[in-house]
Amino acid sequence: MTAPDADGLLAEQLLRLTRRVHRIQKHHLLQSGLDITPAQSRLLRTLTHYDAPPRMADLAERLEVVPRAVTTLVDGLEASGRVRRVPDPTNRRVIRIEVTDEGRKVLEELHRARRSAAEEILSPLSDGQREILGGLLDTLVDGPPGAERAC
């Protein structure tokens, strides 16, 4: 009989947790009544990381998707008044994407929905356990101190 695969068990637990997080976030998004897909919400949140409105190619690169996927997402967000296409001031052939006032309101609501989901997921943990989990997650996301990130 072979010993249990501890790393395999951890990997399975992480995958199950990821699926649970997605399910709970989706539930909170539906409850918010925002009528936004998870992919649209990700694109909207990504726009906030830029100092100036990005090009669609920049968004595709950051989201690690093909440019056509970004076009579809922007079309949906633009139709709902959450983003708008604006011409680049220095190159009229380039179109940039900016968040509208409505998009900023949606971002605030998304933040509340994500926070509610996180509170639900973390509710069984004590403050000490949350602190330990935070440190472990930092190490998993960023790698050990001084390590170069592969991706």
Report the biggest beta sheet as strand number plus sense, adding barrel if it closes.
2 strands, antiparallel
Count helical runs.
Answer: 6
SS-based class: mainly alpha
Portion of residues in helices? Answer: 55-70%
Mean pLDDT: 89
**What pattern of helices and strands is seen along the backbone?**
HHHHEEHH
Structural account:
- The structure is a single chain.
- It is built from six helices and two strands, in the order ααααββαα.
- With 151 residues, it is mainly alpha-helical.
- A two-stranded antiparallel ribbon has the order 1-2.
- The protein is globular, with a radius of gyration of 19 Å.
Structure keywords:
two-stranded antiparallel sheet; single chain; mainly alpha; 151 residues
Would you kindly provide a brief summary of this structure?
The protein is mainly alpha-helical and 151 residues long. 64% of the residues lie in helices and 7% in strands. A two-stranded antiparallel ribbon has the order 1-2.
Lay out the secondary structure.
Layout: H1 6-32, H2 38-47, H3 56-63, H4 67-79, E1 83-87, E2 95-99, H5 101-122, H6 127-142
Antiparallel strand pairs: 1-2
Helix pairs in contact: 1-5, 2-4, 3-4
